[in-house]
Amino acid sequence: MPTIKNNNFIGHVDLKGVYLTDLSYKGKKVLFDRSQIRLGDSMKIRGGMHVCAPNFSDDKILNELNSHGFGRNLTWKVLDCGEDFLDLGLRGVGTYEKVDFEISYKLEEDGLRTRLLIKNKGTSPVPVAPAFHPYFRTSFDELVISDLVIDKEALPSSIFVGRKNLSFRTKDFEIAILACENVGVYTLWSDFLDEYICLEPTYNGKSFADEDKTPFVLEPGKDFGQSFLIRVREN
To answer: Rounded distance, CA 93 to CA 179, Å?
Structure first.
């Protein structure tokens, strides 16, 4: 499992699903470590950060994609790497068999920069509405989101917030997710099985499932980029 690190951060990436399985800043956990957690009679994977591509949530457009897409279930190839960065690639499947996906994780002194690039090399347009799904290590009581009051009872059903940037505070950190490309809606969610809350940068929420929203139509020969910086500072 590849490691990325610098003077402040360390994280590990599972090539299956390009999961960032953990991320720590000066020895303190920013993300809840990826874990298997029991829910009733089954075990659920929770934690880390994974991509949701080509779709976020359910697919009611093509009716062929799993919830959150195939990107988190397939094994990606390493395209380039260094001590503090990792570039990975994946060829799509099904309707996306002629679409290339690339993800870059790059550590900076104050945060993690993430970029997804989708390249349509086919002859037909394809819908895309990707997202990333980070599990921040925090309890509900320790979380304070700037300019936003959260209803705890609503979190298991998801709360959608339209904005480019999202700033919040946990017990240990002040964190800001700063959008660079194609982030317009944040999804806030937790099932409270452990101390994590997801604050997820998305293109425009559940546009593969919500009739009031539309995904981006990626034309042949064109690219779509989504990128953001998770900036971390100690309290």
So the answer is: 28
Question: Could you give the C-alpha distances from 171 to 11, 145, 168, in angstroms and in order?
Answer: 20, 12, 10
Distances (CA, A) of 12 to 1, 61, 183, 219: 6, 34, 24, 34
CATH T-level topology, domain 3-234: Beta-galactosidase; Chain A, domain 5 (2.70.98)
Instruction: Judge whether residue 211 has pLDDT over 90.
Output: no
Closest listed residue to residue 127, CA positions, set 75, 181, 204, 51: 204
Q: How far apart are CA 3 and CA 44, in angstroms?
A: 24
Q: What backbone phi and psi angles, to 5 degrees, belong to 157?
A: -100, 0
Name the phi and psi angles at 94, rounded to 5. Answer: 60, -130
C-alpha count within 13 angstroms, C-beta hemisphere, residue 3:
5
Model-level pTM? 0.96
Phi, psi of 156 (to 5 degrees): -65, -20
Instruction: Please state whether beta strands 77-82 and 85-91 pair in parallel, antiparallel, or not at all (unpaired).
Output: antiparallel
First to last CA, the chain: 31
